[in-house]
Amino acid sequence: MALDEGPRSCLLRVRHRLEQDMKPSYIMDHMITDGVLTVDEEEKIRTRATRKDQAAALLELMLRKDNRTYISFYNALIKETYDDLASLLHADLPRTSPTAYKSFPDGYTPYVRTVLSEGGVPQRPVVFVSRPELLNRVREKLYQLQKEPGWVTIFGMAGSGKSVLAAEAARYHSLIEECFPGGIHWLSIGQLDKPDLLVKIQSLCFRLEQELDPQLHHRPPNSLDEAKERMRFLMLRRYPRSLLILDDIWDTSVLKAFDIQCRILLTTRNRSLVDSVSGAKYEVEVASGLDEKKGLEILALYTNRKMHGLPEEARSIVKECKGSPLVVSLIGALLKEKPDRWHYYLRQLQQKQFKRIRKSSSYDYDALDQAMAASIEVLPEEHRELYKDFTVLEKDIKVPAKVLSILWDLPIEEVEDILEEFANKSLLFMDTNNKPYLYYLHDLQLDFLIDGC
Ligand SMILES: Nc1ncnc2c1ncn2[C@@H]1O[C@H](COP(=O)(O)OP(=O)(O)OP(=O)(O)O)[C@@H](O)[C@H]1O
Ligand SMILES: [Mg+2]
Fold first, then answer.
1. Average pLDDT, the chain
2. Whose CA is nearest to atom 25 of ligand 1?
3. Distance 363 CA to ligand 2 centre (A)
4. Exposed e or buried b for every residue in 312-330, given b needs 16+ CB within 10 A?
5. Segment 360-375, tens digit of pLDDT
6. CA-to-CA distance for 307 and 297, rounded, in angstroms?
7. pTM, entire model
8. Distance between the two ends of the chain, CA-based, in angstroms?
9. Domains of the chain by range and CATH?
10. Closest ligand 1 atom to the C-alpha of 161?
11. What CA–CA distance (Å, rounded) separates 357 from 337?
12. Which atom of ligand 1 is nearest to the CA of 324?
C-alpha cells in the first residue's frame, strides 16, 4: 500500500524544514522498533556524509513507503521532542484503513498510539496482563456514548486496576475511529482542592488549544466558572467527538466542573459520585480480583520465568494477595530484585507484614495500606470510627445490617444508610443475592484495619 496523497504532499511541502532540523539517527531507531524501516535501509542512510544528507535520504525513502511509516515517523518526532516538526505533519496524519489494522489483533495500531500519546493517556504498566471480560464491558459502554454524551464510571477498591483498565479500554483502533476521532484526553485528578483543579483544567485547555493552532496563545481561564465555559466551547465546537478520561475522582465538585454535555470516562472508588451530574450514565464495577492464572502470569512476567517454571510458593502468594493486581505486582517487583525470596515473601504475607514489605520495596506506587488509608480519611469522623469496628468481624464472614445495628447501637435504617455509603466508596462489599443483604470486607481491607490504621 502506497503513501496517501495528503501525507505525501505534506512531506514534500515541509521536507526542507525537516532536513534542516532533525537528527535522523534517533528517529530511525524508533522506526526500526515499529517495524517500518529495516536495519539495511538504516545502514544505507547512515552512509551519507552529513546529517542533512541522511535526513534527505530518509525522507526520500519515506515517500516510497506507506501510511504506517508516516505515522511511525510522526510518533518518533514526538518522542524525540521535535514537537514543532511533528505539528507540521499532524494535519495530514493518515487514518489507517480497516485492512491495515487487521495486522494489529489487539487494535493497538500506530494511529492509536499517536492519538493516545497526544492525549496524555498513560502507557501500559511494564508488566501487564489482559482482563478481557472487564475490558469488553467498558468498551461496550463507551460505544454507547457514540449516540449521546454521557458518563461511564469505572469503580472499585484501591489498587483494583481501574486506571490501567481505563487506559486499556481506549487503546482500541475501531473505538477511536468510530466514536472518538477527535481524540482521547486524559486528566489525572486525585484528591485536589479548587485552585489545583483550576490549574489542571487550564493546562487541558492549553493542550487542546495548542493542538488546534500552536501559534495562538489564549489567556488561561482564571476562575472555575470561566474554565468550565472554555471547556464547554472546546468540547462542543472544536472536539465534539472526543473522549475525556478523568482518572481518580474523589469529589463531586470536580465532576460538576465537567458537567458540560461531553463524553467522559472516569475512575473512582466512590460509586455514587455521578448522581450529582446530568446525562446518560453507565457503570462498570471492578469487583473481583484477578483469578489465579492471571496472578501467576504477573509473577512469571516479573521474574522472567515460564508459568510452569514458577516455584511452588507462587500459588500461595497469589492466594494471599487475594487477587489484588496492586499487591501481586508489588510482590512481583520485589521478586524481580530478589529472586530467591519466594518463601520469605510468602511468610511475610501470611503474617500480614505488609508494612515491612512496603519498606523494602522500590515500587513506585504507594502500597495498599496507604491507598486504603486515603479512602478512610475522607469518611466523616464519626463514620470512620464505625468503620474501624469492622475489625471484630471474622474473615470470610458476611453479616446482615441487623448485626451491625446491635454492634453500633443504631436504628437499622441509619445503619443501612451508613453501609451504603461504605459500599459506594468501595470500602465494603454487599452481597445482594441474599435478602436481607449481607455485608463484608475484602480480606485485604480487614487485614489493614486489624493492622491498625
Ligand atoms: N491488567 C494489569 N496487569 C498487570 N498489572 C496490573 C494490571 N492492572 C493493575 N495492575 C497493577 O496494579 C497497580 C494498580 O492499578 P491501578 O493504578 O489501575 O489501580 P486503581 O484501581 O486505579 O487504584 P487507585 O484506586 O489507587 O487509583 C498498577 O500500578 C499495576 O502495577
Ligand atoms: Mg487509579
1. 86
2. 158
3. 15
4. ebbeebbebbbbbbbbbbb
5. 544 433 456 666 676 7
6. 6
7. 0.71
8. 61
9. 5-94 (1.10.533.10), 113-285 (3.40.50.300), 292-365 (1.10.8.430), 374-451 (1.10.10.10)
10. 18
11. 13
12. 12
Q: What is the pLDDT of residue 362?
A: 41
Alpha helices by DSSP H, listed for 304-435, are 313-320, 325-337, 342-350, 354-359, 368-377, 381-388, 401-408, 412-424
| Cα–ligand 2 centroid distance for 86 (angstroms) | 31
Residue ranges around ligand 1 (CB below 6 Å): 125, 127-129, 131, 156, 158-164, 248, 267, 269, 298, 325-326, 329, 365, 371
- Give the ligand 1 atom nearest the CA of 268: 25
Give residues whose Cβ lies within 5 Å of ion ligand 2. Answer: 163, 248
Residue nearest to atom 3 of ligand 1 (CA): 128
Q: What local confidence, expressed as pLDDT, does residue 365 receive?
A: 39
pLDDT of residue 396: 64
Give the position of cell 501525507: 7
Entry field: residues in the chain: 453
| Phi, psi dihedral angles at 49 (to 5 degrees) | -65, -50
